[in-house]
């Protein structure tokens, strides 16, 4: 079995998720927001809501589905990183905020299934 470069696979999954969300009516704000606290894959706008999107990809050989892999620790990291994003972008302070997950699962035959989990978690759900 050939092992693919995880950065290449991750970038392709993020691009696929971004295209999917745009078709669903969201607008791209930025991609791969990085800071000392972590990274947010996609920041999108859904009308009056700023959406922080975590993209998860799992190949056909994995046991756990991609949507199940955003644990409490990852949620905390995303929440803290989003707070820093909002601090650096005060023009976004009037918007509602939502955390979504786009889970992409590849089957053994190479076909991919996209699951969009809107409002996947909230800051109150995770202990900061």
What does the model show?
The protein has 128 residues and is of the alpha+beta class. It is built from 2 helices and 5 strands. The protein has a single domain, classed as Trna Endonuclease, Chain: A, domain 1 (3-Layer(aba) Sandwich), CATH 3.40.1350.10. 27% of the residues lie in helices and 38% in strands. The protein is globular, with a radius of gyration of 15 Å.
Low-confidence stretches: none
Major sheet characteristics: 5 strands, mixed
Based on helices, strands and strand pairing, what is the structural class? alpha+beta
Q: How much helical structure, as a percent, in the residues?
A: 25-40%
The CATH architecture term is 3-Layer(aba) Sandwich
Oligomer, anyone?
single chain
Shape: globular
Topology pattern, helix = H, strand = E = HEEEHEE
> What is the helix tally?
2
Number of domain units: 1
In short:
The protein is an alpha+beta fold. It has helices spanning 6-23, 72-88, and strands at 27-35, 38-46, 49-58, 96-106, 112-121.
Topology:
Blueprint: H1 6-23, E1 27-35, E2 38-46, E3 49-58, H2 72-88, E4 96-106, E5 112-121
Short key terms for the protein model shown above:
single chain; 128 residues; alpha+beta; Trna Endonuclease, Chain: A, domain 1; 5-stranded mixed sheet; 2 helices; 5 strands; 38% strand; globular
